[in-house]
Design goal:
- This is WYL domain-containing protein.
- Residues 8-63 form the HTH deoR-type domain.
- Keywords: Transcription, Transcription regulation.
- Pfam families: HTH_11, WYL.
- GO terms for molecular function: DNA-binding transcription factor activity.
- With 323 residues, the chain is of the alpha+beta class.
- It has 4 domains: 3-65, Winged helix-like DNA-binding domain superfamily/Winged helix DNA-binding domain (Arc Repressor Mutant, subunit A), CATH 1.10.10; 78-126, no CATH class; 146-235, SH3 type barrels (Roll); 241-321, Alpha-Beta Plaits, CATH 3.30.70.
- The chain has 11 helices and 11 strands.
- It has helices at 3-21, 27-34, 38-50, 78-94, 97-112, 116-126, 146-156, 226-235, 249-255, 286-291, 304-321, and strands spanning 55-58, 62-65, 158-164, 173-185, 188-195, 200-205, 209-218, 241-248, 264-270, 273-280, 298-302.
- Strands 6-5-4-3-7 form a 5-stranded antiparallel β-sheet, with helices on one face. The chain has a 4-stranded antiparallel β-sheet with strand order 9-10-8-11.
- Helix 4 packs parallel to helix 6.
- The protein is globular, with a radius of gyration of 26 Å.
- The N and C termini lie far apart (80 Å).
- The relative contact order is 0.06.
Length: 323
């Protein structure tokens, strides 16, 4: 079998798996996933039809497999089987207890169809992977279903009741939400939802949710997608300030772990030093307070305002220690 023919065969098999995993799959979605033209996808779809797979093409929507058509069981490669174990460990750390429990249940069903030697391989490896828990867990113990309830709310378009304690709130406040999606950033999940009290979209950090529960009430209206929300939210962010720092290479290595969160854009090597450029959202508080951890090893090239802000914070700290 030629290389090109094998690539096409593998792609057609993968397309079949995609069709099994979703009710409707768009041709453009397949073209983007496999990095080929729409014409190539149409040709591959035709090959599946000629092979006897009963596909339904919906104009302007996509393709689906006819209801009731039974496909042979899927087999997994050794590498795919091993990835299940790593993913299960990740769910235990990053998902709420209910979601992690559901994933483990699904994984048991997947393991049931594995070959015996693959089952032994998974049993050997799963005890060798340990995920240390975060110092600040993404969900509170009293709401082990916060994420799963949110996902259920989104899928069924049912309103979600939460008690939420914002960073400046002394106690939790009751909210009724219509979630449009979730995203993960900085170790926490954020629920993006239309708040019926605020009559606008808000973001709710997962570890600040004290209670959560699905209601029987339907969404009050149709909402934009989370992708559209995040795009519009990004466009309305306050102007950013260019920051340039210079430091030794050893110090630069330590900054790599967090710098993206503070607007890192690029770096260049100058002899034995590294110059880093940032686009900061907040040079008044956030950026200078981050810099305090390594301020004695770094020189601020620009802006002058950041130098003064850092100086003010340090002077206040010194004053406080002398009291």
């Amino acid at each position: 079998m030629s290389v090109d023919l094998k690539k096409r065969f593998d792609r057609i098999v993968d397309i079949l798996i995609q069709l099994q995993s979703k009710r409707v799959v768009r041709a453009q979605e397949l073209a983007d996933r496999f990095d080929v033209s729409l014409r190539t996808i149409y040709r591959d779809i035709k090959s599946l039809e000629q092979a006897g797979v009963p596909l339904i093409g919906e104009a302007g929507t996509g393709y689906s497999i006819m209801e009731g058509y039974k496909l042979p069981p899927i087999s997994f490669s050794k590498e795919e089987a091993l990835s299940f174990v790593a993913t299960e460990k990740l769910t235990q750390k990053f998902l709420d207890k209910e979601s992690a429990k559901q994933y483990s249940s699904a994984l048991l069903k997947i393991k049931a169809i594995l070959k015996s030697h693959d089952k032994d391989l998974l049993s050997t490896v799963e005890n060798q992977i340990i995920m240390q828990q975060q110092s600040m867990p993404p969900f509170l113990e009293q709401v082990p279903h916060a994420l799963s309830s949110t996902l259920e709310s989104i899928s069924h378009k049912k309103q979600l009741f939460v008690k939420y304690q914002g960073i400046n709130d002394e106690e939790g406040k009751e909210r009724t939400l219509e979630p449009i999606g979730i995203y993960h950033e900085g170790g926490f999940w954020y629920i993006v939802a239309y708040c019926l009290i605020r009559q606008d979209f808000r973001q709710f950090r997962s570890d600040r949710i004290l209670e959560a529960g699905l209601t029987e009430n339907n969404f009050s209206k149709e909402h934009i997608s989370i992708a559209a929300y995040l795009k519009s939210h990004k466009n309305t962010e306050r102007p950013k300030t260019t920051v340039k720092l210079i430091m030794g290479k050893k110090v630069a290595n330590h900054l790599k772990w967090e710098r993206k969160h503070y607007g890192f854009e690029s770096e260049r090597i100058i002899d034995d030093q590294v110059e880093m450029t940032f686009q900061s959202k907040d040079i008044a508080i956030e950026f200078p307070r981050w810099m305090m951890m390594f301020a004695d090893f770094v020189t601020i090239l620009e802006p002058a305002e950041l130098k003064q802000n850092l100086k003010n914070i340090l002077e206040q700290a010194i004053e406080n220690t002398n009291k």
